[in-house]
Amino acid sequence: MNTLSNTTLLLGRAFLALIFIASGFGKLADPSGTIAYISSVGAPLPELGYAIALIVEVGLGLSLLFGYRTNISATILAAFTLATALMFHNDFSNQIQLIMFLKNIAIIGGLLQVSVHGAGSYSLDRLRR
Fold this sequence. Notes:
Layout: H1 3-29, H2 31-40, H3 46-66, H4 70-88, H5 95-117, H6 124-128
Helix pairs in contact: 1-3, 1-5, 2-3, 3-4, 4-5
């Protein structure tokens, strides 16, 4: 794979990871607000949901960024993103919620591409091999 392809894979991972890392740190900065929001949609065990969201968004977001166990990280992030889209953005009569849902679907598409094609040479996965 050439330098341009590897750079593009790195940038793609970084752009996808950014939304998860930023969202995770936002949740970390406001735990009570986040737990209240999770509760507002009727999700069970909102404190557990909060902990899972932090682990997935920050932990797997960083894993995706650095290209560590990229295929697994991207697949779990895709499943998490689908679950959150269905749970939090399911009022399709509200145009903003529909757009948020479709944004999540687009992110899932990018994550599935990363899952299939891997992290490229600029990654910890490459160093592990």
